[in-house]
Amino acid sequence: HLSPRLQAVSNYVKPKASLADIGSDHAYLPAFLLSQKVISHAIAGEVALGPLENARREIVAAGLQGSLIARQANGLDAITSADHVDTVVIAGMGGLLIADIMERDFKTHNQRQFPYLILQPNNNERAVRKWLIEHHYCLMSETIVQEDEHYYEIIYAVPGHQELDLLDLKYGPYLRRERSEAFQRKWNGEVKRINLILGRLAQAEKEDSTPYRQWAAEVRQIQGVLQ
Ligand code: SAM
């Protein structure tokens, strides 16, 4: 049983995929996909010892020693060409870290590309989209899910060419056109938060200040996207 966030990530994994889950921690995602027989083998990559041990414990508990390998490695170093990985998942980290991990691999492994990327940044989604389109990936689909007060965006990308404008990068080219309920809740929440800031600035008679104008412009942009 996965959380709604990881469930949404897992929905993008194709049957029989050769999967690497980078920053896997407990390896819940690959363990679930293996137990459901969606895939037949996977790699769980972890840079840190504690999470690596979590993954190893989960593998033994689920009896997946034959099909799920946990490797201690920095980012995509967990994957060698002999693995024939076609699907890379990086979930549950900041967008800057995800972009960093992708960039390091791109540089150190001769610009290798993967057929399917499933990326779930916890923040800074823009940095992930920007990295993708600047490195010959094309976004195929996006999902936003809510868990408690958090909104998580999942980006599914494949090699290709795409042009995104500033609004696409920030709000998501698909998300901002679909305007799902979760998407509207996320950005309406942001408007509320900014309006509190604007209220405080107004109370301090700072309506003419640069921050006030910038926050007001941000609200107008969000409202334009939500319309
Ligand atoms: N992917 C799981 C999920 O979505 O629930 C676990 C997310 S957990 C919050 C983030 C994990 O990424 C941590 O266990 C951390 O050790 C790992 N991590 C951070 N930087 C990494 C890197 N450069 N390479 C591999 N793993 C990394």
Notes on the protein architecture:
This protein is an alpha/beta fold and 227 residues long. It folds into 2 domains: 4-175, Vaccinia Virus protein VP39 (Rossmann fold, 3-Layer(aba) Sandwich), CATH 3.40.50; 184-226. The protein has 9 helices and 7 strands. It has helices spanning 4-10, 28-35, 49-61, 95-108, 125-134, 166-171, 175-178, 181-203, 210-226; strands spanning 19-22, 42-46, 68-72, 87-93, 116-121, 137-147, 150-159. Helix 3 links the parallel strand 2 (42-46) and strand 3 (68-72). The longest helix has 23 residues, at 181-203. The two termini are 36 Å apart. The model has no long low-confidence stretch (mean pLDDT 97). The structure holds S-adenosylmethionine. S-adenosylmethionine (SAM) is lined by residues 6, 22-25, 45-48, 51, 74-75, 91-93, 97, 101. GO terms for molecular function: tRNA (adenine(22)-N1)-methyltransferase activity. It comes from Eupransor demetentiae. This is tRNA A22 N1-methylase (TrmK).
